[in-house]
C-alpha cells in the first residue's frame, strides 16, 4: 500500500483548519434525549469523510441491522455502553472499543443500558448524511411517509434494512 496521489500542490500550506469546541450546541436533538454533533461533514471535508459525535440519551435508541453500498462506517465508543451489531450478533462495547464496517457490512448500533452513552461515528467517503438524520428526527416528531416514500427515502440515503 502506498500514499494516495497528492490533492494539495501549494508550497507553503494553507490556513484552513477548523475547530469545534466541546461545549458547542448539538446540531440535532432527538426526543429520545440523544443528540448529534456534526464534527466534520462530507461537505466540509471535500467528500473525504464525515465524523459525528453521537450522544445517546437514557431511552433505548439506535438502528436495527442494515448495510450501505457506498460508504464504510467506523465507531469509537467514548463513554457508556453501546451495543454494536457485527453481522452475527450484538456485542456490548464500552469506552475505547472500536469497530470498522466496510461497505456492504451488516451493522447496527444502539443504547439499551438505561444510561447515557457517547461514540464517534465516521463514514467514508463523505456522503451527505445530515439530511438522513434530520429526516429521522422529523419522523420521530410525527412526520408521516407512505411505505413507498420510506422505501425511496432509505434508498436515496443508501440504507438497506435486513
UniProtKB/TrEMBL annotation:
Pfam families: Cupin_2. Residues 64-122 form the Cupin type-2 domain. This is Cupin domain-containing protein. The lineage of its organism: Bacteria, Bacillati, Actinomycetota, Actinomycetes, Propionibacteriales. InterPro entries: Cupin_2 (IPR013096), QDO-like (IPR053146), RmlC-like_jellyroll (IPR014710), RmlC_Cupin_sf (IPR011051). It comes from the Bacteria.
